[in-house]
Specification:
The protein is of the alpha+beta class. The protein has 5 helices and 5 strands.
Length: 184
């Protein structure tokens, strides 16, 4: 009986999160999904046509993927980009999956820093445990581990700050996407 209740609860949670534009305020890379009543190729061609018709955004298409970015001259460190994947559901409809994120070099830097902090944390943890097992002092390692936790939170809040800094651009990218697909 409890498995059935938890299953219903999970379905309820999935329904709620799929209906929201930004499923969670904690996410640094918001995602969304749209069902479009147009063929996939029409949507992709609409984005192809906007490449040269406007200069406010840089549009790049690779197969079923479209990347919309802010032009280099207007970009700042936290400028987001919008990655769209357009998947055909049948001959007259398609589904659009969107993902906002920082520029790839910023995302790579943040992932590298997170990996570095995690590796150092584990290393200091092993060192602290070794010293504990040998009845040697291990206070320094625990202090360094606590500092790494603080650095981890600082990285997270830096990402949140970056997301907040690029929020106007996120809305501009989203508005451009809606205008291009004929929904805005």
């Amino acid at each position: 009986m409890s498995a059935l209740v938890s299953g219903k609860y999970m379905i309820f949670i999935r329904k709620i999160t799929t209906q929201m534009l930004l499923p969670n305020e904690l996410v640094l890379r918001p995602r969304f999904k749209k069902q479009l009543m147009q063929p996939q190729e029409n949507i992709l061609q609409a984005f192809e046509a906007t490449k040269s018709a406007q200069t406010n955004f840089v549009v790049t298409r690779v197969d079923d993927h479209v990347f919309i970015k802010i032009p280099k001259a207007k970009q700042h460190f936290w400028s987001p980009q919008l990655h769209l994947e357009i998947m055909a559901t049948n001959e007259t409809e398609c589904e659009l999956f969107g993902l906002f994120g920082p520029a790839p070099n910023v995302w790579t830097l943040f992932m590298f820093l997170h990996f570095l902090v995690a590796t150092l944390f584990l290393g200091f943890g092993v060192w602290a445990y070794s010293n504990y097992s040998l009845d040697a002092p291990y206070t320094v390692q625990l202090v360094l581990m606590a500092l790494l936790v603080i650095v981890w939170f600082a990285l997270y809040f830096a990402g949140k700050l970056g997301k907040a800094t690029g929020k106007k651009e996120m809305y501009a990218l989203y508005g451009f996407m809606e205008k291009t697909i004929g929904e805005g």
